[in-house]
Amino acid sequence: AVGLGEAQRGYAHLQFERLAAQGAVIQGPVEMFLRVGVALEQFTGFHHLARALREADPTLEAVRVLDARGRLLFSEPAGEESAIPLSHRVPPLPGQRFEVTEDARVFRVSLPLSDRFGVVGRLELVMSRQAVDLRVLQRFQPLFTLLGGCLLFQVAFVLGAQRLWMRRPRRWLGLAFCAGFGVMTLASSLALVDLYSDGLQQRTSSLAHSLARRLNEAARLGLTLSHLRGLDTLLEDYQRSNTDLGSLALIADERVLVQAGAGAGTPGHERFKYTIDLELTEGPWSLPVRLEVGAAKGALDARLWRGCRGFLFLFVACGLVGLLVLRAFAPLPRRASRPRAFEHGAVDRLQPLAFLGAFLDGLPLAFLATSAEALNPGGGAALLVFAFHGASALAFLYSERTARDVGPGRFLMGALLLSAAPLLLMAWTGDFRLWLLLRCLSGLGHGALAAGTRVYLLAVFHPQQPPAHGSRLVLSRCSGLLSGTVLGALLASHLGPGAAFLCGGLGALAALSYARLWLPPLDARAPAPGAGLFRASLSWLAPPPLPSGTGSPREYLPALLLVGLPSLLVRGGVLCFALPLWLAGQGEDADLIGQFLALHALGALLCHVLPPPRTDRTRRLLQGGVLGLGVALLALGIAGALEPVCALALGLWGLCHALIQACLKRPRASGLGEGRARERGLPSIAPVAGALGQCLGPLVVSALWLIPSEPLQVLGGLGAGVLLLGAAYFWMTRGLPGREARHA
To answer: Where are the transmembrane segments (predicted)?
Structure first.
């Protein structure tokens, strides 16, 4: 599905560029006519030029010229313009000089027509969608047969090799999944190579004919190549406006007369070339001149890398889901006979719910801000993020007692239902006020799900025994955030935001059935006297069952306010708000935005996969986390427009953010009884600080950043602020006794 969607989108863009190159054959003469001072409706020769284009390209349904008010002036085939169905604008690529609109039947490529004073009309080329879809399906038809074969192989392996894979299911089922996924990825990549090569050849041919027509007009006036000036500038402008071109050259008698591109005329520099014999001649002997146009090697490689990168992220997301399923559906022993094994199995079965909470959080991350700004420009995205995290914080703070009263199992099912309903409704509505209300309800469900998961975990273990295996739930949350970001971006890019919301709602309903049928029923236990020590933070990476490492107030409060709060504020304001809007403004699609944001979740996942450090190294790790977070934000502010820098900075940011949150929750090396009465109220500040950072982050960033501009200066300022606040904290706590034995 990802390969097919990528092929349809990539091949369609190649066809748009081909049509724009063909339209330049008409655009040039019309604009020359307009610059003389004659009105657009008085242009002659349109039908001759347009008819020649339609005869050369059977996929071209119509060619039209419209004035600035949208009135039809010329049309080929002739006839009155029929009512145009409701269409929407296709997002342009960076540097694109034409506009594309689409509806259910056709694509429309529009080129501006300008005189000496401005745009006075547009040239519109209409192409059938069916031509693009049929071409893509023709190349991908063998892959459907291959997909069926891979599915049959998976089913046969599961049913026929039970004795083999039941001993080590994760190894053998994982190998079978990797083999099937690898075969489909390789086949899809080969199909993309074939399809993109065909599209690039057609586009190069159209560009070559467009340029050849302009040069042949000089030959019809009796001019030779030596009479023309500025040909090198013409070729360079052509190459600059069409970045996929590797070289353009005018060659006579095997000599390169004029060239653009470092490898012009060099064999093997381009992936393929297109040659046209011109009517121009050179010199007194009238040597024939030919035009060579080559497609750059990187033109195809860049498009293939885009598709392969999507396959790679999809593989990681599906692999994480598969590992989770293998753990969740493992047999569960009885509690009376094997209590420790029962507790471990119950934690494994609780992981899908922790996964789902983060999955629903990351699902709209790549496209929600853009969609909200389209519905309510000038603050819609910030309000949605504020509403979601604020409602989640309130639900988490006030749901624990309710979960204990009604039982953790029933409470979890209610939280899942509250999470599913708003997403299903958002898939069918486009009103911003309703979206705001539904995001509040979704936040309530998200917070209630986190609180119910914690209460269930506390009910599994003995009252005097601290909950174990909390790191598994942390890994499940990180995996869910990564998978949700990737899958939500892919669905929004290929099927629209409604499909992503629908997927999230159906996933929550499936989790509701899972909790009803597969989660072992438990009675909530009364809280132990020291239960306050297990209070969880509202941070998105907070492991609920782990004890909060509350040092003395002189250590904990400055760490929370000067280190923890800024990191959460930056995440809420930049990752959930500014970064998606900025990347969308640069012309990036939702799937690429999701891949960038998934790098942040991948860095957090790597932080928790690594073995936990010793408690006496916590302060040094916290220093490294603050330094890395500040450096990552500064790198985004200085060179965030460069794709490799942006990717590395986001990965480092995720790693350091997770490291900071983990350090703020590590237990002390000293006993828990020391100063318990004095420290009992400290952990309750963490949820308030977490909610404050997540909610106020978008509002603070939106106040500092004007959306049409680039937020790079704001990111750099936030990075400098994080470093200064971190330095202030470490300076304030430099003389405290036992600072290496306590967490900061």
So the answer is: 140-160, 172-193, 310-329, 350-369, 381-399, 411-430, 498-519, 556-580, 592-610, 622-641, 647-664, 685-707, 713-732
Where b means 16+ CB within 10 Å and e means fewer, 207-221 reads: bbbbbbbebeebbee
Domain with CATH 1.20.1250.20 in the chain: 329-669+679-732
User: Residue 372: which residues within 8 A CB-CB, separation 6 or more?
Assistant: 380, 381, 383, 384, 432, 435
Report DSSP letters for 112-163, one per residue.
EEE-SSSEEEEEEEEEEHHHHHHHHHHHHHHHHHHHHHHHHHHHHHHHH-HH
User: CB of 409 within 8 A of CB of 522?
Assistant: yes
Residue with tokens 């996942």: 605
Query: What is the spatial distance between Cα 534 and Cα 546, in angstroms, rounded to a whole number?
Result: 6
**What architecture is the 2-133 domain classified under in CATH?**
2-Layer Sandwich (3.30)
Rounded Cα distance, 359 and 367, in Å: 15
* Secondary structure in 3-state letters for 62-124: EEEEEECCCCEEEEECCCCCCCCCCCEECCCCCCCCCEEEECCCEEEEEEEEECCCCEEEEEE
3-state helix, strand, coil in the chain (%, to 5): 65, 10, 25
77 cis-preceded (ω within 30 degrees of 0): yes
Distance CA 664, CA 339 (A): 31
As a whole number, the mean pLDDT across the chain is 76
Q: Residue 651 has what pLDDT?
A: 92
In which order are the strands placed within the sheet that holds 60-67? 72-76, 60-67, 119-128, 106-114, 99-102, 88-89
Residue where the block lists tokens 């603070």: 700
Q: Where in the chain is the domain with CATH 3.30.450?
A: 2-133, 199-299
Please count the CA atoms within 13 angstroms of the CA of 321 that sit on its side-chain side: 17
Nearest to 203 by CA among 51, 10, 7, 2: 10
Q: What b/e sequence results for 402-439 when a residue is b if at least 16 CB atoms lie within 10 Å of its CB, and e otherwise?
A: ebbeebbbbbbbbbbebbbbbbbbbbeeeebeebbebb
From CA 653, how far away is CA 593, in angstroms rounded? 16
The alpha carbon of residue 12 and the mean position of all alpha carbons in its chain are separated, in whole angstroms, by 20
User: What CATH code is assigned to 199-299?
Assistant: 3.30.450
Estimate to the nearest angstrom the gap between the alpha carbon of 90 and the chain centroid: 18
Structure tokens, 90: 């296709």
pLDDT tens-place string over residues 5-17 = 777 777 788 888 8
Counting every residue written for the chain, the total comes to 744
DSSP string, 42-60: G---HHHHHHHHHHH-TTE
Q: Which amino acid is at 17?
A: E
CB within 8 Å of 278: residues ≥ 6 apart: 212, 215, 216, 219, 250, 288, 289, 290, 291
Q: Which helix (H) or strand (E) holds 250?
A: strand 245-252
Q: How many CB atoms are located within 10 Å of the residue 370 CB?
A: 21
CA distance 464 to 530: 9
* Encoded amino acid at 719, one letter: G
- Whether residue 214 contacts residue 31, with contact meaning beta carbons closer than 8 Å, is answered with no
CATH superfamily, region 329-669+679-732: MFS general substrate transporter like domains (1.20.1250.20)
Helix ranges, 221-296 (H): 231-241
Q: State pLDDT tens for residues 495-518.
A: 888 889 999 999 899 888 888 888
- Structural tokens at position 164: 């083999």
3-state secondary structure of 643: helix
Closest CA to 574 of 713, 414, 678, 743: 713
CB 566 within 8 A of CB 722: yes
Q: Which two tokens stand for residue 713?
A: 């200066």
Side chain identity at residue 743, one-letter code: H
Report residues of the chain scoring pLDDT below 50: 264-268, 524-551, 667-684, 737-744
